[in-house]
Amino acid sequence: MPVDDFAQPLIQAIDCGVAFAPGSAVLEGVDLAIASGEFVSIVGPSGCGKSTFLRIVAGLVAPSSGEVLVSGSRPEKARRGAAPMAFVFQDPTLLPWRTVADNLQLPGELQSSLPRLAPPDVLALLERVGLKPDDARKRPRELSGGMRMRVSLARAMATNPKLLLLDEPFAALDDVLRQQLNEELARLWQADGWTGLFVTHNVSEAVFLSQRVLVMSSRPGRFVADVRVPFAYPRSFALRGDPEFARVTAEIGHVLREVLR
Amino acid sequence: MNRLVTRFFDTVVPPLILLIVAVGAWEAYIAWYNVKPYLLPTPRAVAMALVTKAPQLTHAVLFTGAAAGLGFLASLVVGTLVAFVFSQSRWIRAAGYPYAIFLQTVPIVAIAPLIIRWFGNGFQSVVVVAFILSLFPILANATAGLTSLNHDLADLFRLYNASRWQTLLKLRLPSAVPSIITGARTASGLAVVGAIVGEFFAGYGTKRYGLGFLMQVTIDQLQTDYLFATVMVSTLFGVGIFALVNLAGGAILQRWYDLPR
Protein backbone atom coordinates (compact mmCIF):
# COMPACT_ATOMS: atom_id res chain seq x y z
CA MET A 1 0.00 0.00 0.00
CA PRO A 2 2.09 2.90 -1.24
CA VAL A 3 -0.43 5.43 0.00
CA ASP A 4 0.26 4.28 3.53
CA ASP A 5 3.97 4.76 3.03
CA PHE A 6 3.43 8.40 2.22
CA ALA A 7 1.04 8.97 5.06
CA GLN A 8 3.15 7.29 7.70
CA PRO A 9 6.89 7.65 8.27
CA LEU A 10 8.85 4.44 8.72
CA ILE A 11 10.31 5.64 12.01
CA GLN A 12 8.39 7.95 14.28
CA ALA A 13 9.50 9.13 17.71
CA ILE A 14 6.98 11.03 19.81
CA ASP A 15 8.23 12.82 22.92
CA CYS A 16 10.53 9.88 23.61
CA GLY A 17 12.62 9.85 26.79
CA VAL A 18 14.90 7.38 28.53
CA ALA A 19 16.28 7.43 32.05
CA PHE A 20 18.23 4.41 33.31
CA ALA A 21 18.17 5.89 36.81
CA PRO A 22 15.62 8.40 38.21
CA GLY A 23 16.71 11.98 37.70
CA SER A 24 19.42 11.27 35.13
CA ALA A 25 17.73 11.29 31.76
CA VAL A 26 19.71 10.01 28.77
CA LEU A 27 17.15 11.17 26.23
CA GLU A 28 14.37 13.69 26.73
CA GLY A 29 11.60 14.93 24.48
CA VAL A 30 12.89 13.34 21.29
CA ASP A 31 10.65 13.86 18.27
CA LEU A 32 11.55 12.52 14.88
CA ALA A 33 10.10 11.24 11.63
CA ILE A 34 12.06 9.34 9.02
CA ALA A 35 10.45 8.36 5.74
CA SER A 36 10.87 4.97 4.16
CA GLY A 37 13.97 4.82 2.00
CA GLU A 38 15.77 7.77 3.59
CA PHE A 39 19.38 7.75 4.69
CA VAL A 40 19.70 9.77 7.90
CA SER A 41 22.69 10.26 10.19
CA ILE A 42 22.72 11.29 13.82
CA VAL A 43 25.75 13.20 15.10
CA GLY A 44 26.29 14.40 18.62
CA PRO A 45 28.82 14.62 21.43
CA SER A 46 29.99 11.44 23.14
CA GLY A 47 27.53 10.04 25.61
CA CYS A 48 24.61 12.13 24.33
CA GLY A 49 22.37 9.11 23.93
CA LYS A 50 22.49 8.69 20.15
CA SER A 51 23.39 4.99 20.46
CA THR A 52 20.63 4.55 23.02
CA PHE A 53 18.17 6.07 20.56
CA LEU A 54 19.32 3.61 17.89
CA ARG A 55 18.74 0.74 20.33
CA ILE A 56 15.24 2.01 21.03
CA VAL A 57 14.48 1.99 17.31
CA ALA A 58 15.77 -1.59 17.21
CA GLY A 59 13.53 -2.56 20.13
CA LEU A 60 16.54 -3.48 22.29
CA VAL A 61 15.88 -0.72 24.83
CA ALA A 62 12.41 0.40 25.90
CA PRO A 63 11.74 4.15 26.24
CA SER A 64 10.79 5.34 29.71
CA SER A 65 8.35 7.89 28.32
CA GLY A 66 6.76 8.70 24.99
CA GLU A 67 6.98 6.16 22.19
CA VAL A 68 8.90 5.11 19.12
CA LEU A 69 7.03 3.44 16.30
CA VAL A 70 8.44 1.62 13.32
CA SER A 71 5.97 1.02 10.50
CA GLY A 72 3.28 2.14 12.93
CA SER A 73 3.96 -0.51 15.57
CA ARG A 74 6.34 -1.16 18.42
CA PRO A 75 9.89 -1.93 17.20
CA GLU A 76 9.94 -5.48 18.68
CA LYS A 77 6.84 -6.24 16.66
CA ALA A 78 7.90 -4.38 13.53
CA ARG A 79 11.22 -6.18 13.23
CA ARG A 80 9.47 -9.56 13.20
CA GLY A 81 7.16 -8.61 10.38
CA ALA A 82 6.58 -5.33 8.61
CA ALA A 83 10.09 -3.91 8.94
CA PRO A 84 12.88 -6.50 9.14
CA MET A 85 15.90 -4.81 10.70
CA ALA A 86 19.62 -5.30 10.72
CA PHE A 87 22.05 -3.71 13.13
CA VAL A 88 25.73 -3.03 12.50
CA PHE A 89 27.78 -2.43 15.64
CA GLN A 90 31.10 -0.65 16.03
CA ASP A 91 32.57 -4.07 16.79
CA PRO A 92 31.96 -6.42 13.85
CA THR A 93 30.32 -8.89 16.33
CA LEU A 94 31.27 -11.97 14.32
CA LEU A 95 31.26 -15.33 16.07
CA PRO A 96 34.96 -16.27 16.13
CA TRP A 97 34.28 -20.02 16.08
CA ARG A 98 32.32 -19.77 12.83
CA THR A 99 33.64 -19.33 9.31
CA VAL A 100 32.65 -16.24 7.36
CA ALA A 101 30.01 -18.22 5.44
CA ASP A 102 28.54 -19.62 8.68
CA ASN A 103 28.50 -16.15 10.21
CA LEU A 104 26.42 -14.96 7.27
CA GLN A 105 23.98 -17.83 7.93
CA LEU A 106 23.40 -16.82 11.56
CA PRO A 107 20.37 -14.50 11.12
CA GLY A 108 18.57 -17.09 8.99
CA GLU A 109 19.27 -19.78 11.59
CA LEU A 110 17.92 -17.68 14.44
CA GLN A 111 14.82 -16.32 12.79
CA SER A 112 12.96 -18.69 10.51
CA SER A 113 11.26 -15.89 8.58
CA LEU A 114 14.64 -14.72 7.27
CA PRO A 115 16.14 -16.26 4.14
CA ARG A 116 18.51 -19.22 4.30
CA LEU A 117 21.49 -18.67 2.05
CA ALA A 118 22.55 -21.09 -0.65
CA PRO A 119 26.29 -21.19 -1.46
CA PRO A 120 25.87 -18.87 -4.49
CA ASP A 121 24.07 -16.35 -2.26
CA VAL A 122 27.05 -16.33 0.09
CA LEU A 123 29.44 -15.67 -2.77
CA ALA A 124 27.22 -12.93 -4.16
CA LEU A 125 27.09 -11.22 -0.75
CA LEU A 126 30.85 -11.40 -0.35
CA GLU A 127 31.31 -9.87 -3.77
CA ARG A 128 28.89 -7.05 -2.93
CA VAL A 129 30.96 -6.00 0.06
CA GLY A 130 34.27 -6.35 -1.76
CA LEU A 131 35.45 -9.71 -0.40
CA LYS A 132 36.83 -12.67 -2.35
CA PRO A 133 35.13 -16.08 -2.70
CA ASP A 134 38.06 -17.64 -0.79
CA ASP A 135 37.17 -15.59 2.26
CA ALA A 136 33.99 -17.63 2.80
CA ARG A 137 35.97 -20.45 4.43
CA LYS A 138 38.11 -18.22 6.64
CA ARG A 139 37.54 -17.53 10.29
CA PRO A 140 37.29 -13.95 11.59
CA ARG A 141 40.76 -14.08 13.18
CA GLU A 142 42.27 -14.52 9.72
CA LEU A 143 40.72 -11.26 8.52
CA SER A 144 41.80 -7.64 8.97
CA GLY A 145 39.62 -5.15 10.85
CA GLY A 146 38.26 -3.70 7.62
CA MET A 147 37.45 -7.14 6.21
CA ARG A 148 35.63 -8.11 9.40
CA MET A 149 33.50 -4.99 9.09
CA ARG A 150 32.73 -5.93 5.48
CA VAL A 151 31.55 -9.35 6.69
CA SER A 152 29.42 -7.60 9.30
CA LEU A 153 27.84 -5.49 6.54
CA ALA A 154 27.30 -8.59 4.41
CA ARG A 155 25.55 -10.30 7.33
CA ALA A 156 23.22 -7.30 7.60
CA MET A 157 22.57 -7.36 3.85
CA ALA A 158 21.87 -11.10 3.99
CA THR A 159 18.57 -10.46 5.74
CA ASN A 160 17.20 -8.07 3.09
CA PRO A 161 16.44 -5.49 5.78
CA LYS A 162 13.92 -2.74 5.36
CA LEU A 163 15.74 -0.77 8.03
CA LEU A 164 19.48 -0.77 8.57
CA LEU A 165 20.73 0.66 11.87
CA LEU A 166 24.44 1.45 12.11
CA ASP A 167 26.14 2.39 15.37
CA GLU A 168 29.51 4.02 14.54
CA PRO A 169 30.46 1.03 12.40
CA PHE A 170 33.66 2.52 10.99
CA ALA A 171 34.92 4.34 14.09
CA ALA A 172 37.73 1.86 14.71
CA LEU A 173 39.05 1.91 11.13
CA ASP A 174 41.72 4.13 9.64
CA ASP A 175 40.60 7.12 7.61
CA VAL A 176 41.26 5.81 4.10
CA LEU A 177 39.40 2.61 4.85
CA ARG A 178 36.58 4.53 6.45
CA GLN A 179 36.15 6.68 3.34
CA GLN A 180 36.16 3.62 1.09
CA LEU A 181 33.52 1.91 3.20
CA ASN A 182 31.45 5.12 3.20
CA GLU A 183 31.38 5.03 -0.59
CA GLU A 184 30.48 1.36 -0.63
CA LEU A 185 27.75 1.77 1.96
CA ALA A 186 26.19 4.64 -0.04
CA ARG A 187 26.32 2.43 -3.14
CA LEU A 188 24.60 -0.45 -1.32
CA TRP A 189 21.88 1.88 -0.07
CA GLN A 190 21.31 3.27 -3.54
CA ALA A 191 21.04 -0.21 -5.01
CA ASP A 192 18.77 -1.76 -2.35
CA GLY A 193 16.61 1.07 -1.15
CA TRP A 194 16.56 0.19 2.55
CA THR A 195 16.16 2.95 5.11
CA GLY A 196 19.41 3.83 6.81
CA LEU A 197 19.90 5.32 10.28
CA PHE A 198 23.57 5.94 10.93
CA VAL A 199 25.10 7.08 14.21
CA THR A 200 28.54 8.66 14.16
CA HIS A 201 30.55 11.43 15.76
CA ASN A 202 32.35 12.12 12.50
CA VAL A 203 30.57 15.01 10.77
CA SER A 204 32.09 14.62 7.31
CA GLU A 205 31.19 10.93 7.30
CA ALA A 206 27.60 11.85 8.17
CA VAL A 207 27.43 14.46 5.42
CA PHE A 208 29.02 12.18 2.86
CA LEU A 209 26.51 9.38 3.45
CA SER A 210 23.25 11.06 4.25
CA GLN A 211 20.28 12.92 2.86
CA ARG A 212 19.69 14.42 6.29
CA VAL A 213 21.93 14.93 9.29
CA LEU A 214 20.37 15.27 12.72
CA VAL A 215 22.35 16.91 15.50
CA MET A 216 21.76 15.73 19.03
CA SER A 217 22.46 17.83 22.13
CA SER A 218 24.49 16.74 25.15
CA ARG A 219 22.76 14.67 27.78
CA PRO A 220 19.82 14.59 28.08
CA GLY A 221 19.92 14.23 24.31
CA ARG A 222 17.35 15.65 21.92
CA PHE A 223 17.50 16.73 18.32
CA VAL A 224 18.50 20.37 17.96
CA ALA A 225 19.09 20.59 14.21
CA ASP A 226 17.95 18.80 11.08
CA VAL A 227 20.21 19.63 8.13
CA ARG A 228 19.35 18.62 4.55
CA VAL A 229 22.31 17.44 2.50
CA PRO A 230 21.76 18.49 -1.11
CA PHE A 231 24.14 16.21 -3.05
CA ALA A 232 23.06 13.64 -5.62
CA TYR A 233 23.97 9.96 -5.47
CA PRO A 234 26.17 8.13 -6.33
CA ARG A 235 28.57 10.01 -4.13
CA SER A 236 32.20 9.69 -4.98
CA PHE A 237 35.52 10.63 -3.47
CA ALA A 238 35.47 13.89 -5.47
CA LEU A 239 32.55 15.14 -3.39
CA ARG A 240 34.84 15.52 -0.40
CA GLY A 241 36.70 18.29 -2.25
CA ASP A 242 33.52 20.18 -3.19
CA PRO A 243 33.25 23.65 -1.56
CA GLU A 244 29.56 23.03 -0.89
CA PHE A 245 30.50 19.81 0.97
CA ALA A 246 32.87 21.85 3.12
CA ARG A 247 30.14 24.44 3.76
CA VAL A 248 27.56 21.86 4.93
CA THR A 249 30.14 20.10 7.08
CA ALA A 250 31.14 23.40 8.66
CA GLU A 251 27.51 24.34 9.27
CA ILE A 252 26.89 21.13 11.18
CA GLY A 253 30.20 21.45 12.98
CA HIS A 254 29.11 24.90 14.09
CA VAL A 255 25.84 23.57 15.54
CA LEU A 256 27.80 20.88 17.38
CA ARG A 257 30.07 23.48 18.93
CA GLU A 258 27.04 25.45 20.10
CA VAL A 259 25.66 22.29 21.66
CA LEU A 260 28.87 21.61 23.55
CA ARG A 261 29.13 25.10 24.92
CA MET B 1 67.17 -23.93 14.33
CA ASN B 2 69.43 -21.51 16.14
CA ARG B 3 66.51 -20.31 18.21
CA LEU B 4 65.60 -23.87 19.14
CA VAL B 5 69.12 -24.44 20.43
CA THR B 6 68.97 -21.21 22.43
CA ARG B 7 65.64 -22.22 23.86
CA PHE B 8 66.99 -25.63 24.77
CA PHE B 9 69.86 -24.05 26.69
CA ASP B 10 67.51 -21.59 28.37
CA THR B 11 64.81 -23.99 29.48
CA VAL B 12 66.27 -27.51 29.70
CA VAL B 13 69.86 -27.03 30.80
CA PRO B 14 69.36 -25.04 34.07
CA PRO B 15 66.95 -27.52 35.71
CA LEU B 16 69.12 -30.39 34.47
CA ILE B 17 72.20 -28.92 36.18
CA LEU B 18 70.22 -28.41 39.39
CA LEU B 19 69.02 -32.02 39.21
CA ILE B 20 72.56 -33.36 38.83
CA VAL B 21 73.77 -31.23 41.75
CA ALA B 22 70.84 -32.28 43.95
CA VAL B 23 71.27 -35.98 43.16
CA GLY B 24 75.00 -35.71 43.86
CA ALA B 25 74.36 -34.00 47.19
CA TRP B 26 71.75 -36.60 48.07
CA GLU B 27 74.11 -39.50 47.32
CA ALA B 28 76.96 -37.81 49.24
CA TYR B 29 74.73 -37.11 52.26
CA ILE B 30 73.74 -40.77 52.57
CA ALA B 31 77.33 -41.97 52.18
CA TRP B 32 78.68 -39.43 54.70
CA TYR B 33 76.10 -39.98 57.46
CA ASN B 34 75.46 -43.63 56.67
CA VAL B 35 71.68 -43.15 56.46
CA LYS B 36 69.56 -46.32 56.67
CA PRO B 37 67.91 -47.22 53.32
CA TYR B 38 64.39 -47.38 54.85
CA LEU B 39 64.78 -43.75 55.94
CA LEU B 40 66.25 -42.42 52.73
CA PRO B 41 67.20 -44.59 49.77
CA THR B 42 70.08 -43.66 47.48
CA PRO B 43 69.23 -42.19 44.07
CA ARG B 44 70.64 -45.37 42.56
CA ALA B 45 68.29 -47.54 44.61
CA VAL B 46 65.35 -45.42 43.44
CA ALA B 47 66.50 -45.76 39.85
CA MET B 48 66.79 -49.52 40.33
CA ALA B 49 63.28 -49.65 41.79
CA LEU B 50 62.00 -47.71 38.79
CA VAL B 51 63.47 -50.39 36.51
CA THR B 52 62.67 -53.54 38.47
CA LYS B 53 59.17 -52.44 39.46
CA ALA B 54 58.37 -51.02 36.01
CA PRO B 55 55.58 -53.57 35.31
CA GLN B 56 53.84 -52.83 38.63
CA LEU B 57 54.27 -49.07 38.20
CA THR B 58 52.88 -49.21 34.68
CA HIS B 59 49.91 -51.20 35.91
CA ALA B 60 49.32 -48.67 38.69
CA VAL B 61 49.60 -45.70 36.35
CA LEU B 62 47.06 -47.19 33.98
CA PHE B 63 44.69 -47.91 36.83
CA THR B 64 45.00 -44.52 38.47
CA GLY B 65 44.92 -42.89 35.05
CA ALA B 66 41.64 -44.63 34.21
CA ALA B 67 40.06 -43.52 37.49
CA ALA B 68 41.36 -39.96 37.19
CA GLY B 69 40.32 -39.79 33.52
CA LEU B 70 36.79 -40.99 34.25
CA GLY B 71 36.46 -38.64 37.22
CA PHE B 72 37.73 -35.75 35.12
CA LEU B 73 35.35 -36.48 32.24
CA ALA B 74 32.46 -36.79 34.69
CA SER B 75 33.26 -33.42 36.26
CA LEU B 76 33.63 -31.87 32.80
CA VAL B 77 30.14 -33.06 31.82
CA VAL B 78 28.41 -32.57 35.18
CA GLY B 79 30.18 -29.27 35.90
CA THR B 80 29.13 -27.84 32.54
CA LEU B 81 25.55 -29.10 32.92
CA VAL B 82 25.17 -27.64 36.41
CA ALA B 83 26.71 -24.39 35.13
CA PHE B 84 24.01 -24.43 32.39
CA VAL B 85 21.36 -24.52 35.09
CA PHE B 86 23.17 -21.84 37.11
CA SER B 87 23.37 -19.60 34.06
CA GLN B 88 19.61 -19.62 33.57
CA SER B 89 18.70 -17.52 36.59
CA ARG B 90 20.40 -15.31 39.11
CA TRP B 91 18.19 -16.84 41.79
CA ILE B 92 19.24 -20.43 41.07
CA ARG B 93 22.85 -19.28 41.06
CA ALA B 94 22.49 -17.54 44.40
CA ALA B 95 20.80 -20.62 45.86
CA GLY B 96 23.27 -23.20 44.56
CA TYR B 97 26.64 -21.52 44.49
CA PRO B 98 27.39 -21.65 48.26
CA TYR B 99 26.95 -25.42 48.17
CA ALA B 100 29.22 -25.67 45.17
CA ILE B 101 31.91 -23.96 47.23
CA PHE B 102 31.54 -26.76 49.83
CA LEU B 103 32.94 -29.07 47.17
CA GLN B 104 36.14 -27.14 47.28
CA THR B 105 36.43 -26.69 51.02
CA VAL B 106 35.37 -30.13 52.21
CA PRO B 107 38.38 -32.11 53.50
CA ILE B 108 38.48 -34.94 51.01
CA VAL B 109 40.46 -37.13 53.41
CA ALA B 110 37.55 -36.99 55.82
CA ILE B 111 34.81 -37.87 53.38
CA ALA B 112 36.73 -40.43 51.31
CA PRO B 113 35.96 -43.24 53.82
CA LEU B 114 32.29 -42.24 53.65
CA ILE B 115 32.33 -42.36 49.89
CA ILE B 116 33.77 -45.87 50.05
CA ARG B 117 31.03 -46.90 52.44
CA TRP B 118 28.43 -45.54 50.01
CA PHE B 119 29.87 -46.68 46.72
CA GLY B 120 31.71 -49.82 47.76
CA ASN B 121 35.36 -50.69 48.08
CA GLY B 122 36.85 -50.39 44.63
CA PHE B 123 37.42 -48.54 41.40
CA GLN B 124 34.06 -46.74 41.37
CA SER B 125 34.77 -45.01 44.69
CA VAL B 126 38.14 -43.81 43.43
CA VAL B 127 36.39 -42.31 40.38
CA VAL B 128 33.92 -40.55 42.68
CA VAL B 129 36.70 -39.00 44.79
CA ALA B 130 38.51 -37.81 41.64
CA PHE B 131 35.20 -36.42 40.37
CA ILE B 132 34.39 -34.51 43.57
CA LEU B 133 37.84 -32.98 43.79
CA SER B 134 37.91 -31.85 40.16
CA LEU B 135 34.30 -30.66 39.87
CA PHE B 136 34.55 -27.19 41.40
CA PRO B 137 37.06 -25.52 39.05
CA ILE B 138 35.01 -26.58 36.04
CA LEU B 139 31.71 -25.58 37.61
CA ALA B 140 33.04 -22.18 38.70
CA ASN B 141 34.74 -21.36 35.41
CA ALA B 142 31.89 -22.65 33.25
CA THR B 143 29.39 -20.60 35.25
CA ALA B 144 31.52 -17.49 34.86
CA GLY B 145 31.89 -18.17 31.13
CA LEU B 146 28.19 -18.82 30.57
CA THR B 147 27.06 -15.73 32.46
CA SER B 148 29.49 -13.16 31.09
CA LEU B 149 28.36 -12.31 27.60
CA ASN B 150 29.51 -9.79 25.03
CA HIS B 151 26.72 -7.19 25.15
CA ASP B 152 26.69 -6.47 21.44
CA LEU B 153 26.50 -10.17 20.56
CA ALA B 154 23.65 -10.58 23.03
CA ASP B 155 21.89 -7.64 21.35
CA LEU B 156 22.49 -9.18 17.94
CA PHE B 157 20.80 -12.39 19.06
CA ARG B 158 17.88 -10.45 20.54
CA LEU B 159 17.50 -8.45 17.35
CA TYR B 160 16.97 -11.69 15.43
CA ASN B 161 14.50 -12.83 18.10
CA ALA B 162 16.65 -15.78 19.16
CA SER B 163 15.03 -18.15 21.64
CA ARG B 164 16.60 -18.82 25.02
CA TRP B 165 17.68 -22.21 23.77
CA GLN B 166 19.27 -20.81 20.59
CA THR B 167 21.17 -18.21 22.62
CA LEU B 168 22.43 -20.92 24.96
CA LEU B 169 23.60 -23.31 22.25
CA LYS B 170 24.80 -20.89 19.61
CA LEU B 171 26.20 -18.11 21.79
CA ARG B 172 26.59 -18.82 25.50
CA LEU B 173 28.08 -22.29 25.27
CA PRO B 174 30.66 -21.56 22.54
CA SER B 175 31.55 -18.28 24.30
CA ALA B 176 32.14 -20.22 27.51
CA VAL B 177 34.54 -22.76 25.98
CA PRO B 178 37.70 -20.76 26.80
CA SER B 179 36.60 -20.49 30.45
CA ILE B 180 35.75 -24.18 30.56
CA ILE B 181 39.23 -24.94 29.25
CA THR B 182 40.76 -22.82 32.01
CA GLY B 183 38.76 -24.82 34.54
CA ALA B 184 39.73 -28.10 32.89
CA ARG B 185 43.43 -27.28 33.25
CA THR B 186 43.08 -26.98 37.02
CA ALA B 187 40.64 -29.89 37.24
CA SER B 188 42.92 -32.33 35.42
CA GLY B 189 45.64 -32.08 38.06
CA LEU B 190 43.08 -32.31 40.86
CA ALA B 191 41.53 -35.42 39.32
CA VAL B 192 44.90 -37.21 39.53
CA VAL B 193 45.37 -36.09 43.14
CA GLY B 194 41.80 -37.17 43.90
CA ALA B 195 42.31 -40.61 42.38
CA ILE B 196 45.50 -41.19 44.38
CA VAL B 197 43.86 -40.04 47.62
CA GLY B 198 40.88 -42.26 46.86
CA GLU B 199 43.17 -45.24 46.39
CA PHE B 200 44.62 -44.73 49.86
CA PHE B 201 41.22 -45.66 51.20
CA ALA B 202 39.90 -48.00 48.56
CA GLY B 203 42.73 -50.52 48.35
CA TYR B 204 41.85 -52.86 45.55
CA GLY B 205 44.06 -55.84 46.33
CA THR B 206 46.94 -57.46 44.59
CA LYS B 207 45.42 -57.90 41.12
CA ARG B 208 44.04 -54.41 40.58
CA TYR B 209 45.85 -51.51 42.15
CA GLY B 210 46.79 -47.90 41.49
CA LEU B 211 49.52 -45.49 42.56
CA GLY B 212 47.84 -44.60 45.86
CA PHE B 213 47.65 -48.24 46.85
CA LEU B 214 51.32 -48.77 45.96
CA MET B 215 52.29 -45.80 48.12
CA GLN B 216 50.46 -47.20 51.10
CA VAL B 217 51.89 -50.70 50.73
CA THR B 218 55.45 -49.49 50.25
CA ILE B 219 55.20 -47.25 53.34
CA ASP B 220 53.90 -50.15 55.42
CA GLN B 221 56.62 -52.49 54.19
CA LEU B 222 59.41 -49.92 54.55
CA GLN B 223 60.27 -50.23 50.84
CA THR B 224 61.29 -46.62 50.70
CA ASP B 225 63.12 -46.88 47.35
CA TYR B 226 59.96 -48.31 45.80
CA LEU B 227 57.90 -45.54 47.46
CA PHE B 228 60.18 -42.88 46.01
CA ALA B 229 59.86 -44.44 42.59
CA THR B 230 56.05 -44.45 42.94
CA VAL B 231 55.94 -40.81 44.01
CA MET B 232 58.19 -39.85 41.10
CA VAL B 233 55.99 -41.69 38.64
CA SER B 234 52.86 -40.11 40.17
CA THR B 235 54.31 -36.64 39.83
CA LEU B 236 55.42 -37.20 36.25
CA PHE B 237 52.05 -38.71 35.47
CA GLY B 238 50.27 -35.63 36.87
CA VAL B 239 52.49 -33.36 34.79
CA GLY B 240 51.77 -35.51 31.74
CA ILE B 241 48.00 -35.27 32.22
CA PHE B 242 48.23 -31.52 32.79
CA ALA B 243 50.35 -31.09 29.66
CA LEU B 244 47.90 -33.17 27.63
CA VAL B 245 44.88 -31.12 28.71
CA ASN B 246 46.88 -27.92 28.20
CA LEU B 247 47.84 -28.96 24.68
CA ALA B 248 44.30 -29.99 23.74
CA GLY B 249 42.90 -26.77 25.23
CA GLY B 250 45.51 -24.64 23.48
CA ALA B 251 44.74 -26.29 20.16
CA ILE B 252 41.03 -25.59 20.56
CA LEU B 253 41.64 -21.97 21.55
CA GLN B 254 43.97 -21.36 18.66
CA ARG B 255 41.79 -23.05 16.08
CA TRP B 256 38.43 -21.55 17.01
CA TYR B 257 39.09 -18.54 19.14
CA ASP B 258 41.12 -15.46 18.58
CA LEU B 259 43.03 -16.13 21.77
CA PRO B 260 46.57 -16.80 22.86
CA ARG B 261 47.21 -20.20 24.38
SS strand fraction of chain B: under 5%
What percent of residues of chain B adopt helix (DSSP H or I)? over 70%
**Count of alpha and pi helical runs of chain A:** 9
Pair of chains with the largest interface and how many residues each contributes: A-B, 25 and 19 residues
| Rg from alpha-carbon coordinates of chain A | 18 Å
Q: Total helix count of chain B? A: 11
Order of helices and strands of chain A: HEEEHEHEHHHEHEHEEH
Which regions of chain A contain 5 or more consecutive residues with pLDDT less than 50? Answer: 1-5
From the alpha-carbon coordinates, what is the Rg of chain B to the nearest angstrom? 23 Å
Give the CATH superfamily of the largest domain in chain B: MetI-like
Please tell me what the overall shape of chain A is.
Answer: globular
Number of separate structural domains of chain A: 2
* Total strand segments of chain B: 0
Looking at CATH, which topology of the largest domain in chain B would you report? MetI-like fold
Oligomer: heterodimer
CATH class of the largest domain in chain A: Alpha Beta
What is the H-and-E element order of chain B?
A: HHHHHHHHHHH
Please characterize this protein's 3D structure.
The complex is a heterodimer of chains A (261) and B (261). Chain A has 261 residues and is of the alpha/beta class. Chain A has 2 domains: 2-84 and 162-260, 3-Layer(aba) Sandwich (Rossmann fold); 95-160, no CATH class. Chain A is built from 9 helices and 9 strands. In chain A, a hairpin with a 6-residue loop joins strand 8 and strand 9. Chain A is globular and about 50 Å long. The model of chain A is unreliable at 1-5 (pLDDT under 50). Chain B folds into 2 domains: 1-35; 42-256, MetI-like fold (Orthogonal Bundle). Chain B contains 11 helices and no strands. The model of chain B has no long low-confidence stretch (mean pLDDT 90). The chains are: A alpha/beta (261), B mainly alpha (261). The A-B interface holds A 55, 58-60, 79-80, 85-87, 89, 91, 93, 95-97, 106-107, 109-111, 114, 139-141, 159 and B 150, 152-153, 155-162, 166, 170-171, 174, 177, 256-258.
